[in-house]
Specification:
This protein is globular. A hairpin with a 4-residue loop joins β9 and β10. The chain has one domain: Trefoil (Acidic Fibroblast Growth Factor, subunit A) (Trefoil). It is built from two helices and 13 strands. It is mainly β and 191 residues long.
């Protein structure tokens, strides 16, 4: 608990030093609330963050990497867990302004599946051994609300938690939104 409080204090102090940051590629609705987080202004310090859980602010559920799914759904990220276990732990890393997300459970980078069609287009999956174009994200932060948003650099879309999907697809994370709304906001926590 003390480590979390120290991290939060450092994050708030670092963001207070930022001043105004232009959010390249963000819509007008997001620029006054969210700032682009880079290596230079990261509240986590430089390089690997080495933490965290990701929680959808829209449904209050932790994001899981679905490692029991098979085929093209293997490693699907879903906002569906109440407790942080192995599948709900991720590592964030930054280089300049490019962020990667890696599942601690299978040690795979998270990809935005841009070759999928229909309702699976842009599905996030923990399945890559190296961070290439589909595994790179922009990270945005709203200090006032302590909320984060991820944006795929490959297609320029914000990551959404699909709360209207049912069954095994409920809460699927997809890079498909043009602006940050309720389904595109997340909280980061330590474990």
């Amino acid at each position: 608990m003390r480590r979390l409080m120290i991290r939060v204090t450092l994050m708030v102090a670092a963001l207070g030093l930022l001043g105004s940051v232009t959010t390249v590629g963000a819509s007008a609705a997001t620029t006054d609330r969210f700032i682009l987080v880079t290596e230079a202004n990261s509240p986590f310090g430089k390089g690997t963050v080495g933490c965290c859980t990701i929680t959808s602010d829209a449904n209050g559920k932790l994001v899981s990497a679905e490692l029991s799914y098979r085929g093209g759904d293997y490693g699907m990220l879903r906002a569906r867990a109440d407790v942080a276990d192995a599948w709900e732990k991720f590592e964030l890393s930054v280089s300049d302004s490019t962020w990667t997300i890696k599942s601690n459970a299978n040690q795979k980078f998270v990809s935005a599946e841009l070759n999928y069609g229909g309702g699976d287009y842009g599905m996030l999956r923990a399945r890559a051994d190296v961070a290439d174009a589909w595994e790179k994200f922009d990270l945005y932060y709203n200090e006032a609300q302590n909320l984060y948003a991820f944006k795929s650099q490959a297609n320029g879309k914000f990551v959404s938690a699909e709360l209207s999907y049912g069954g095994g697809d409920y809460g699927m994370l997809r890079a498909r939104a043009t602006e940050i709304q309720a389904w595109e906001t997340f909280r980061l926590g330590s474990f």
